[in-house]
Design a protein that fits this description.
Length: 83
């Protein structure tokens, strides 16, 4: 099983982002994930795109989940990507 590269869009001082990162770390123990943490404040374009949605978890060019992250549904989505 090859690693799935996750783009994790986040910002500082974001409790939802902290929770989402913890969920990603837990899932990383179950399957090979490469987590790329991206602070949306590094780019005006990212702030405009994701400012109201963060945290955002994307893989394979697709936004998988945003806001309140659900571990079980995210796990299912990741398993379908890695088939």
């Amino acid at each position: 099983m090859s690693p799935i590269t996750i783009s994790f869009y986040t910002k500082k001082h974001c409790p939802l982002c902290d929770k989402a990162h913890m969920i990603l770390k837990e899932l990383q123990e179950e399957m090979p994930l490469e987590i790329r943490k991206i602070d949306i404040y590094q780019s005006d374009e990212l702030i405009e795109k994701y400012g109201l949605m963060i945290p955002v978890i994307a893989a394979e060019g697709e936004e998988l989940q945003y806001g309140q992250i659900n571990k079980e549904s995210l796990r299912k989505r990741l398993l379908t990507i890695n088939k």
